[in-house]
């Protein structure tokens, strides 16, 4: 079983706008995080567009391995975790604070992300760009909340 913690929550009001860090958020089934661009755009549909997660360890590794320094919000993922092996959670359910999420697929980096950040980010984050998830059960999440993968 994987357990860790929620280090940060980031939302952006619209595509391409900078993310902002918030201390707590309401997570809604079929929409994602209230106040985030994906929820506002109505990007539901069970394909992993509702919530994105990334390990802070991956962000730290990019700096060590590739010399690319990113602030956690620069990765443009909604939730920044510590102590959770996200790649292992595809197809699994995880509890984040008061919400249940289902890992759908890896969140591989794209050229768009690199255009918004720094050259080399796309290659540096391959296979460690995080997890795309859908909301199974909504609720409130807060920075510092535990994250736990539930048994299958």
Features of this protein?
seven-stranded mixed beta barrel, M1 Pyruvate Kinase, Domain 3
Structural account:
16% of the residues lie in helices and 36% in strands. It is α+β, with helices and mostly antiparallel strands and 152 residues long. It has one domain (3-149): PK beta-barrel domain-like (M1 Pyruvate Kinase, Domain 3), CATH 2.40.33.20. The strands form two sheets. A seven-stranded mixed barrel has the order 1-6-5-9-8-7-11. Strands 4-3-10 form a three-stranded antiparallel beta sheet, with no helix packed on it. The N and C termini lie close together (10 Å).
The SS-based structural class is alpha+beta
* Helix residue percentage: 10-25%
How many beta strands in the DSSP annotation? 11
Q: How many domains in all?
A: 1
- What is the CATH superfamily? PK beta-barrel domain-like
Sequence stretches where pLDDT stays below 50 over 5 or more residues: none
Q: Biggest sheet, in brief? A: 7 strands, mixed, barrel
| Strand line-up in the sheet with most strands | 1-6-5-9-8-7-11
Q: How many H/I helices?
A: 4
Mean pLDDT: 86
Strand fraction: 35-45%
CATH topology: M1 Pyruvate Kinase, Domain 3
Q: What is the distance, rounded to the nearest whole angstrom, between the alpha carbons of the first and last residues?
A: 10 Å
Shape: globular
- Name the CATH class: Mainly Beta
CATH architecture: Beta Barrel
User: How do the SSEs run, as a string of H and E?
Assistant: EEEEHEHEEEHHEEE
Radius of gyration: 14 Å
């Amino acid at each position: 079983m994987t357990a860790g913690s929620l280090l940060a929550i980031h939302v952006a009001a619209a595509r391409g706008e900078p993310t902002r860090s918030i201390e707590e958020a309401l997570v809604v089934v079929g929409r994602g995080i209230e106040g985030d661009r994906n929820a506002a755009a109505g990007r539901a549909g069970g394909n992993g567009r509702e919530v994105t997660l990334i390990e802070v360890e991956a962000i730290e590794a990019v700096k060590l391995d590739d010399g690319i320094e990113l602030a956690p919000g620069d990765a443009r993922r909604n939730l920044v975790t510590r102590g959770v092996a996200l790649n292992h959670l595809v197809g699994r359910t995880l509890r984040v604070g008061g919400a249940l999420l289902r890992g759908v697929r890896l969140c591989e980096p794209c050229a768009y992300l690199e255009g918004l950040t720094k050259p080399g980010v796309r290659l540096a984050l391959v296979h460690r760009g995080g997890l795309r998830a859908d909301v199974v059960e909504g609720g409130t999440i807060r920075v510092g909340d535990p994250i736990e993968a539930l048994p299958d």
